[in-house]
Design brief:
By secondary structure, the protein is an alpha+beta fold. It has helices spanning about 10-20, 120-125, 150-165, 175-180, 200, 205-210; strands at about 1-5, 35-40, 45, 65, 75-80, 80-85, 100-105, 110-115, 170, 250-260, 275-285, 300-305, 310, 315-320. The strands form 4 sheets. It has a 6-stranded antiparallel sheet with strand order 1-4-5-8-14-9. Strands 12-11-10-13 form a 4-stranded mixed sheet. It has a two-stranded antiparallel sheet with strand order 2-3. The chain is globular.
């Protein structure tokens, strides 16, 4: 089942190349980079001509939506491209593990879940006895994101899904995740500069949630998103790639081992397979988190065996 549903994907693809921030390197002007734009210190990168990205094999073009089976998660084809990963020094809320900023190339299109994996989708794996039943913490099941997920649990699901479909499902790399979350944006949040717009795009820690969780030592967004805890996936506007809930709702496990900075990080979009692999990376923030954590560059570490009421995941699929 294939259909093209991601409005604005082509515009987003163009902005992936043309709207990237500069990487500061000792104040020296840089020459033309392989990403098709000029990197300079302290100013925006000047765009250069870029050839259109080739369509992936199998007729799946950027923005195409498909499902490999009735109970499989819907997937969106994410185009190849280049972006600057990490956060600039002046970004509010940034921490040292988001540096150094560095250019990353995503060489091939890949598919990413349109939504976080839901309880319905997880329960299909549980019905096949390949996954354990997941606790919903009283928040609700169905189309809500599956929570109380460890990295190890997520890996069991992708193994089951790969076996079921005979396709290469996996967790996205950290670079793939950030590239897809940004969808061409260089801002702290993919929707733009204003944190006040959060409740149009994300399920976040808001005044109503704070009133219930009074002991939470964190700032709240000023807006109300209509949900106390998790929200059904797709309840908020997508980003320019047609992906929902890339910020908020549930933290999402990615494939990478934990490293405390980006020094030595892969620049080809692959997962970082060295470092502290007893801990893995979580991205995207969750319903229990405020503005400092609801940013596309925010990184969190946790034990691969650890689960929690705001920990979930979404899947990627390698395309032929």
């Amino acid at each position: 089942m294939i259909r093209n549903t991601a409005r604005g994907v082509l515009l987003a693809l163009a902005s992936v190349y043309a709207a990237q921030p500069a990487i500061a390197q000792e104040g020296k002007a840089q020459g033309p980079s392989s990403s098709g734009y000029v990197l300079t210190s302290g100013q925006a990168a000047a765009p250069a001509a870029v050839a259109p990205a080739p369509a992936p094999a199998g007729g799946l073009k950027p923005g195409s939506e498909f499902k490999d089976c009735a109970t499989c998660p819907p997937m969106i084809v994410v185009p190849p491209g280049k972006f600057v990963m990490g956060s600039p020094p002046n970004e509010s809320g940034r921490v040292d593990n988001e540096e150094p900023t560095h250019a990353v190339t995503i060489p091939n299109a890949f598919a990413l879940g349109k939504y976080e994996i839901t309880f319905d989708e997880w329960d299909a794996c549980a019905a096949d006895r390949a996954c354990a039943r997941a606790d919903d913490s009283g928040f609700g099941r169905g189309r809500r994101p599956v929570i109380n997920m460890s990295y190890d649990s997520a890996m069991k699901y992708v193994a089951w899904l790969s076996d079921k479909t005979k396709k290469q499902y996996r967790l996205p790399s950290e670079a793939e995740w950030e590239y897809a979350a940004r969808a061409g944006s260089a801002e702290a949040r993919f929707w733009g500069k204003s944190a006040d717009q959060a409740c149009q795009y994300a399920n976040v820690f808001n005044p109503t949630t704070r009133a219930k969780y009074k002991d939470a030592d964190r700032g709240a967004f000023a807006c109300e998103d209509g949900y106390m805890e998790t929200a059904p996936v797709g309840s908020f506007k997508p980003n320019a790639f047609g992906l929902h809930d890339m910020l908020g709702n549930a933290w999402e496990w990615v494939a990478d081992c934990w490293n405390g900075t980006y020094a030595g990080a892969p620049t080809d979009g692959s997962a970082w397979a060295t470092g502290d692999c007893t801990k893995r990376v979580l991205r995207g923030g969750g319903w229990y988190f405020g503005p400092r954590n609801i940013r596309v560059a925010k990184r969190l570490k946790n034990w691969a065996t650890r689960s929690g009421h705001d920990l979930g995941f979404r899947v990627a699929r390698t395309l032929p």
